[in-house]
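BUG: 3D viewer hangs when loading the predicted structure for this chain

Environment: internal workstation, default settings.
Expected: structure renders.
Actual: progress bar stalls at 90%.

Input used:
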Amino acid sequence: MTNNNAQLTYQATRISTATKEQLLLITYDIGIKACRTAESAMNAKNFDIANREVIRAQEVIRELMVTLNREKGGEVADKLMQLYEYMYQLLVDANIKKEPDNVVTVRGMLEELKQTWEQALMKLLQEYQAAHPEDKDLQNAMNELEGKKPEAEKPAAPAPAAPAPAQAQAKRTGSFTLAG
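Structure tokens produced before the viewer hung:
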């Protein structure tokens, strides 16, 4: 039970601190996982779990539809909406027929869309990085995404040597002794 609480806490923190781009990728991950679980459950003839997970995947598709900004997105957003509607209908059919083929199709589409968004975000990050080479936090984040080690920090200038105790003058303030 404690492990489950830790996972829920981690997930809640991950979501509450995520950017809108990260939330989009998390949403795709939830849909992909729901589809995988539904596929397995359908293949095992466990239709209660399959139903629950197909409904979860439908909720993900609905969330993607609701958050789609069709004003700003123009034709691309309209095409995405059509794709989401198609995916939603495939899931409805899969749940009615209790056959995993449509779920497999939707999972593949979600994986492809997620990969496309990841590539687009990576490109934007690389462009920003090229324009802001001084941003070491971004450089370290990019290295982490690419599986590289973080850039080594420049060694700090050595701190001035503290005076030897015999040379230090001591000043007493309350219960603290400060060298100075």
